[in-house]
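Shipment paperwork, digital attachment
Item: protein structure file
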Amino acid sequence: MQQRLYYLFLLLSIPICVHAQNPTQLLSDGQTAMDEENYAQAIQQLSQAQQLFKKGANWDQYALASKELGMAYYYDGQKEKAENSLKTSIDLAQKQLKDQPTENLSQLHKGLGTIYYFEDLYWNALPVFEQVITIHKQIDPKHPDLFRDYYNLGSVYGLSNDYNKAILNLKKALEIKGKEKDDIYYKINLDIAQQYRKDGNLNKTDEYLDLLLQQENELPTNIIGPVFGEYGFLLQQQKDYRKARKSLQKAYSLYVKDSDVVSIDNQIKIVTAIGQVFEDEKNLDSAVVYYEKAFILCEENYANTHPQYILSQLNVIGGYTLLNETNKASQLVQELQKNGLNIFPAKSVNMYSLNLVLGNYHKALEDFPTAQNYYQKALVALIRDYENEDPYTNISTAEFEKALSLDNLTDALAVKARGFYAAYQAGKGGEKELQAALNTIKVFDQAVDAFRKDAGSETNLIWSDLTLDAYENAIQICLALEQTKGDGQYKNEALYFAEKSKGLTLLEAFQRSKATKIGGLPAVELDKITVFQESIANLKQEVFALSKIRSAKKTDTQKTREKAAKEELFEQKQAYEKFEQELAQKYPQYYNLRHQVQIHDLEAVRKVLDADQALLEYFVADGGTYLIKITQSTFDIYPVEWTEAEIKRDVYNFRKSIYSFYLGGGSKSKEAQQAYAESYSKYAHKFYQKLVAPAEPLPQRLVVVPAGALAEIPFETLIKEKPSDPLSYKTHDYMLQSHSISYAYSSSLLEEMQNQTHDKKPEKTLLAFAPQFGNKSKKVSSQRFALSPLIFNTDEVDGIKNLLGTGDLFINEHALEQTFKEKAGEYQIIHFATHGLANSRDPEHSFLAFTEIEDENPHNEFLYVRELYDTRLNADLVVLSACQTAVGKSYRGEGVVSLARGFAYAGAKSLFTTLWSVNDQSTSVIAESFYKNLKKGLTKDEALRLAKVDYINRANDAPPFLWAPYILVGDTKMIEIKSDGLSASSWLLYGLGGLSALGLGGLALRVKRKKEW
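Attachment content:
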């Protein structure tokens, strides 16, 4: 019996022994055991295979067995052993295969990278995934897996919060993959959009999402939900909260519908995002409802140490803190401190968020030292190789390049500065905290500059909004230090921050224009810039025109072309971006000049003012308003208790009181007129008392730099004393009577306009356009927004020419957009007597209209704001004889993007522009006087003031609606007008009557097309 058992043992052991000597079979069996999740057996078999391959010097198979063994250790829960095993195997295999790298060697690296990825050790994963790319390039420069390698690397860079490198690698993956529109193509484009958004470049995010949304019906199930989710995140950051909620709700419904495809994690993120939108809208109760809803989902699906659980917990804590419900927040904080303080990597955006929330919680408790410690930890979490946790120290600009996200870094710095200032306000801090706050906000300002360098102008417009509240805090800090110190230094710094908060994107555009002229670019490169800009402008215009055709009327050909044009535009923008990056590397002088934007200090402001001028500059934000007064001998800053929301409401009512009786569709009774007049006198006096009276006495000439909604009112209409008879407009004590007023986007921009570097001194005086509309233009009523005929615009430009004694006129069929573009740079004064339309939703598509050309494009003779960015003028004055040319879309920290602003960028030193739809007869009289006064040698601001005063004195009735919409922006210096000897006495009776016809026609246009804009 015993002998039989012995033989049986021998028989059973024979195949095992034979098997043990076959490493290939051991490897295969080990892989099978892995698939069956029998990790102990897999480890035994793979270990034997690895050693046998090593013994036989079969290093390629050794690499494969080592990779499988490492993963088996990992899935068996032996994480440290898995990492060590893979690292040891990589060192040996790489040494042996260095002259002949193999696919299995790349898989060995990928195994280690995958483990780091699973463990959220992204910085450890990066060099490993980069090595995978190196190996594949050595095997074959066109290796079929390279696009996936770059995609993996880009994704990990994104998770590491190095968004710039993430984008570069994702784009490389897309370039290698090609344009075949499959799941991976859509996924990469979506990931690029996400990385741009996280990096704060909202314009680029919009471009990529638009590309995907064009193909909504073609997108796979696992992509369409995330696209709408990402679009909601974008709209939230653009502060379009209504649309953001709509897009996020659509994403959520798609996630719930396809719950088998979409993870609960994504559902939680969308619910949280809706809460964040409500928080941004200051609807805190609704925000907390959604935060709690997301948290409940986490409690149902995750352990209390899961990262998503912790993030949801942080949102609820943050919501309770904002609602001042610190008791509710404290319970969650205790749980968080018990379970979650070390759950995130030390260097991560999640760790930054955790510390930021805890800092805000302790600030709400007025435990400011603890709050500041957490704020400093938030900074430490965002910056690689930075460990200083002393809140009174600050990072250097060298740390910016090490930041995981400049966007988050600016937030961290702004919050830290507010914390120091809050301690001072609560009486728990003094000069030390104020100085620390100022030092921090200065670093914030430098970080904003670093971000803006490589962001597009459209993104920077939005960023001007996002940084406004931090600049408000900066002014508060400076004025508090000024009160403490009283040496004038901090008041000047407050001026810097006020200037930095407005018109910065336009100032950057001026600087870029200078850089192309003096940055050492060869002519061939300048030509390429021109070609790119013209191509992009033309495609934008085509896309816009096609998008405005209603779907029901759009032909299949037009639909196909619209989609193709959008893709062409996207590709052109991509190519131009790449070209600009190459220019920056090849011509560093050009790149550096592009970003040398100078912000005015006190002495620089005084240099742009004449001896008899004062500058009144305003800063408007959530907490209140500041009035800054500067003359050659005085400098004062006055806090005004008037919030941004209150000003916006009052400006709306003030404007309504001026023009609603005349332009609105309501009652035209005497009682209605009286009510509007009383409302006008109330607001005109209130605005004077709030915005001007604190700065009295003032010199005769004023330069007003408005902010926010204040850019929509003419200061000339403010009245010093409230009248006893509101309807007796002629007798009101207007500011106009004692002050000539001009406007500027900022004092820094005023200097830019005064000192415009023109390509040449214009040899000709007047260029004027009077296009043809209405009955004589066949397609007008069907395709050109029903532009009404302009009865007096031909007489208008004839009259100007006769008055000035010189001029080139382009009338009716000769008044073409192309003519303007070809000839505009040759003239001192450019005058448009035409239709105009402000587009408050898409300001770059506000336009002036020229005579239509017969072709298929319904927008063929519209001059859009966007086109002006690529136009160069040498004009001292542009007269925009068109409705609403000074209004458009208002950005809180930037100002109004309008037609007038477009002409300023194009090179005009000063602009005669309008704030609302204008009237016929009054315009002709005012414009006639204006040109006559210019010819007498008066400054432009005084010429316009006297023209308005003369009108009021001569009119039977003079409500501000008739004389107030015309304002002067920019340089006020006199114009030396050359005459060819024609008599000024031939000025026509109607003068600039076309302005009025334009005004009323423009009004009809605006009302008729309101829904489409």
